[in-house]
Design a protein that fits this description.
By secondary structure, this protein is an all-alpha fold. The protein is 59% helix and 0% strand.
Length: 58
């Protein structure tokens, strides 16, 4: 039982030190980096514009 308590304590301590990817940025620089990354991902997911010239109407 004592080993289980120690193992749980170590798990809690190491879990607290692990980086949390769901945390919100704290500084304005981190916020800007986050916004830039979101915008780049959004632009990459958009379809490329068509480059065919429009047809002439008679």
């Amino acid at each position: 039982m004592k080993g289980l308590v120690i193992a749980f304590g170590l798990l809690t301590v190491t879990g607290a030190c692990a980086p949390d990817n769901t945390r919100m940025p704290e500084s304005s620089y981190q916020w800007q980096q986050r916004q830039d990354r979101i915008e780049q991902d959004w632009r990459a997911s958009q379809p490329a514009p068509q480059t065919t010239p429009p047809k002439d109407k008679p």
